[in-house]
């Protein structure tokens, strides 16, 4: 990975990025859920056992937010990682103690319109746990700056 | 709105739900960004002015997470609000001091398979600010329990 910021001209379909790891703990899972997704399967170990999740699991939105942090750390885009929209699929539960990383691939590039300052780049991300299981996929449309002329 | 939990049999296409309000403050915006989306336009009032956002704006993932809390409060689904996946579009920036609410509509229902315990319900949500502007849309696929027989 380079430390130089990447402009839309620097990207190509098939280009890949891999993030570092992030561990997720039970206390973080419960704190996130308390603020944003207060449901028993995200809040309480005992109550979670009787639910579809069969044990404490992170809110899908917690997984998405953590994935965003890993993207910010691993996608060195000029101007930052700026999403217009995203499709997320939650594939498997994230459990306390899991360590996640993100594998990203550029799948589509729409160059800037003539005179435009930004293109749209579609990046497919897989969030993967320490067992190699994909817990989430997301397909994000990002605004990426063109290289300044001169 | 009813306090009785709703099963998939209780839902119909066109059914609507409206959440209560949630205010979002500058300190919350910065704290969320510090944890999950540490970029200048979400962290620092001054630095944000020179960016695409032209001022401090909430992370899109913060808006999504807050939308989830409003959904948990306003969608009285039996078994909880359990998403399989979602399509999110971030339409307009969320600013410090904004008050958001969510307007949801059932747009599709796939009943449980014979012998299955859950159907899939697609809900289109609009997150709206105090000026009536839609800041986010999201189309979520939710697992919804069938009414227990007997």
Tell me about this structure:
Two copies of one chain form a homodimer. By secondary structure, chain A is an alpha+beta fold. The first copy, chain A, has one domain (about 10-145): Hotdog Thioesterase (Thiol Ester Dehydrase, Chain A, Roll), CATH 3.10.129. Chain A contains four helices and six strands; from the N terminus they run ββααααββββ. The first copy, chain A, has helices at about 25-35, 40-45, 45-50, 60-75, and strands spanning about 15-20, 20-25, 80-90, 100-110, 120-130, 135-145. In chain A, strands 1, 2, 3, 4, 5 and 6 form a six-stranded antiparallel beta sheet that branches. In chain A, a hairpin with a 7-residue loop joins strand 4 and strand 5 (about 120-130). Chain A is elongated. The model of chain A has no long low-confidence stretch (mean pLDDT about 95). The interface of A and B includes residues 40, 52, 69 and 79 of A. Strand 3 of chain A pairs antiparallel with strand 3 of chain B, so a sheet runs across the interface.
Summary of the model, kept short:
The structure is a homodimer of 150-residue chains. Chain A is an alpha+beta fold and 150 residues long.
């Amino acid at each position: 990975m380079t430390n130089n910021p990447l402009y839309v001209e620097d990207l190509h379909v098939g280009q890949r990025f891999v993030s570092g790891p992030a561990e997720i703990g039970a206390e973080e899972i419960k704190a996130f859920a308390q603020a944003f997704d207060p449901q028993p399967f995200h809040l309480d170990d005992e109550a979670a056992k009787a639910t579809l999740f069969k044990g404490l699991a992170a809110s899908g939105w917690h997984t998405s937010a953590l994935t965003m942090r890993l993207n910010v750390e691993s996608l060195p885009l000029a101007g930052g990682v700026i999403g217009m929209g995203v499709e997320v699929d939650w594939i498997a539960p994230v459990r306390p103690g899991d360590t996640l990383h993100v594998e990203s691939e550029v799948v589509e590039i729409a160059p800037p319109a003539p005179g435009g300052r930004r293109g749209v780049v579609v990046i497919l991300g897989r969030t993967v746990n320490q067992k190699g299981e994909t817990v989430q996929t997301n397909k994000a449309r990002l605004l990426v700056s063109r290289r300044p002329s001169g």
